[in-house]
Amino acid sequence: MTEPRYSPWTRHLHWVVFILVACALLLIYIHNWTPRSSPLHASAKWAHMQFGIAILLVMLPRLLVRSRAPTAPPITPPLPAWQAWAAKTVHLALYVLLIVTPLLGIASRLWNPAAWNFLGVPLPHAAYPDGAFSHMLQGIHGDFGNILMYLAALHATIALFHHFVQRDDTLKRMLPGGREER
User: Fold this and answer.
1) What residue ranges do the domains of the chain occupy?
2) What is the DSSP string of 21-84?
3) Which residues contact 109 (CB under 8 A, 6 or more apart)?
4) Which pLDDT tens digit goes with each residue over 157-181?
5) 8 A C-beta contact, residue 124 and residue 130
6) What is the radius of gyration, based on Cα positions, of the chain?
7) What is the CATH code of the structural domain delimited by 8-70+85-166?
8) In Å, how far are 18, 24, 66, 140 from 46, measured between CA atoms?
9) Measured between alpha carbons, how far is 151 from 130 in angstroms, rounded to an integer?
10) Over the stretch 41-62, which tens digit does the pLDDT of each residue have?
């Protein structure tokens, strides 16, 4: 008998989001670490925005898949009630941050008077661009991005704790590949 796992779509979208978030994080660090005059500085910020928009675009089908199968496969052995509650709370926070953080980044670009695009397609601005408001939104976007980074790291650490210390199947349910349950 195979162990219960998340659906293939759920697992694939989870790992795609993981890769997109890791790339966006790496790119914003590259942007922050390079001199303003460097071509890499501007390229890293542009690429960060592309990955941020992609995160939002991938989260939409992820939410759809999640809404069609709202219950997670059971964990063996079952979690204590407090761990199940904590897991649901962290997952909810991650989902909120994975949607709100890119939306804040997009909003900061909407109010920024500078040109912007997604994969070369020009994107609009607010009717009355406001650099100060854009800067404020960008700061909030950065703060939420940091919270997302720390929460995702906590999420991964706890998954590894479940796998190596508690020795349950929490992590195995989300790993890619393997045989599908029939």
Assistant:
1) 8-70+85-166
2) HHHHHHHHHHHHHS-TTSHHHHHHHHHHHHHHHHHHHHHHHHHHHHHHS-SPPPPSSPPPHHHH
3) 49, 116, 123, 134
4) 999 999 999 999 999 999 987 655 4
5) no
6) 19
7) 1.20.950
8) 19, 10, 30, 19
9) 31
10) 999 999 999 999 999 999 999 9
